[in-house]
Amino acid sequence: MGHDRMTGALREFDLAVVGAGIVGAMTGHLALEREPGLRLLTVDQLDQLDQLDQGSPNATGLSAGLDVPTGRDERQRELAARSTALYRRLRAGRPGLPVRPLDTFWLLARDNVGRLRETMAGPVLEEADPDALSGVFPGLRPSGDQALLRSGGSWRADVAGLTRALLDEQRGRSGCAVREDEEVTSLRPYGDGFLLAGEGGRALAWCRTAVVATGPWALHGPFGERMRAAGLRIKKVAAFHLDLRPAGDAPALIFEDDDAFLLPQPESGRWLFSFTSQEWDGSPVLGPPALSDGDHREAVRVLRRYVPWLAGALSGGRAFYDGYTPDRLPLVEPVPDHPGVVVAVGGNGSGFRLAPAIAERALALLSPGYLEPQSLGSGRS
Questions:
Q1: Nearest to 43 by CA among 217, 229, 180
Q2: What domains sit in the chain, N to C, each tagged with a CATH number?
């Protein structure tokens, strides 16, 4: 290993993934898919088995789980299309995973249809008959200056369940480990790899390479100041529940002009209404954010504009934090003074949607042969 035996009591790993959310879990999955004999450590300060189900400030546990392959520019569209392809491959190999295809409708100003078409990363938009939604959203009819469109190619997932399944896969492999309730505060160069250190500098393990995928905790973990200098900020993501039971094949409805959507969650017997919150610079260290009166007013405003009768069905909800970058692209890059370490953060509220492509890009930066050269972008992912 190229260093002295001060680490004799520590386990040694080929790859350590710091962060056990969907990006971290997907990173481990793809790494083991490529190298089944890899010694992999995934470590997280939260106990995912408990926290994914208990309303933690965890972006994975509270994610809406909607994958609609779109992107605001060519780089984001490439990531979205690649992630959709990887999710399709994952589901084909393991059909029992909680990832399901989803029909999607779009309601927007007719003047904005051309711009929406430009964002699509594969799916084709077609004009939809408003009667197609009459049984789902009675009374919903676009006005003369609005368009109702339909697309396929979307997925919805129980992100917590998917993440647990991927972590369990890692737990069951020889030479691999998943450690939870174990905070990593730094990665210190040591020999030809790194020591993962916890609070007070306590050494936790040795690894040859590492991916730091700490999600909304990014500013408080290893290389937090570097990520802050890159412009990463923490924003609240909010959604309300609607106390109405959707059919198993109910579609998603996206209000494109308002950056909001209705997502069926038949397994939970409810709909989820996601909308845009503009509360910035909170911290998961202080606990999860709360839904505010302003959040409620914004949710009611959007629903009353399109489907007024749904505004009275709002019932509870969820809020969590995520990392946002200035250009809304994931921050996936090597740490210059730590060769063999890559940060993979900045889900921008789309961590589930882009997780496979983020993970794939991080692994490619650690091992240039991981992907074919023509499939890699240059610079920032």
A1: 180
A2: 5-61+160-231+327-375 (3.50.50.60), 101-155+233-324 (3.30.9.10)
